[in-house]
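hiii, so i know i said id send this last week but things got crazy w the move. better late than never?? heres the sequnce for the chain we talked about at the cafe, plus the structure i predicted for it. fair warning i was half asleep when i ran it
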Amino acid sequence: MTIFGRKLWMLRRKRNMRQEDLAAALGMPRYKISYYESRAKNPTMEFVQNVANYFGVATDELLKETVDVKLKPGPKSKIECQLEAIRQLPPKKQKTVSEMLDMVLAQ
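okay and structure toks below
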């Protein structure tokens, strides 16, 4: 794994994203994300810039040897938004949602 590939993998994992998710966000097929993470030695500057913009980091942070990559908060996931909405419900409705989740997760 190259320096860039390792950092790309780390950024994706910190956001709990699959390769498919990142590929969709960047408008490219999943196999390209896999390629850049695992074996690309010379990523295009366009791709490096797109990744940097998406994750809110500088391009030099992606290409330098240091492993400390700083993230700016990204958009909330759908489940995070749903959890916030559930927290705003009255306790009785929260209990109903919790019971429904328990049934689905038990399957």
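btw DSSP finds seven helices and no strands in the chain. thought thatd interest u
miss u guys!!
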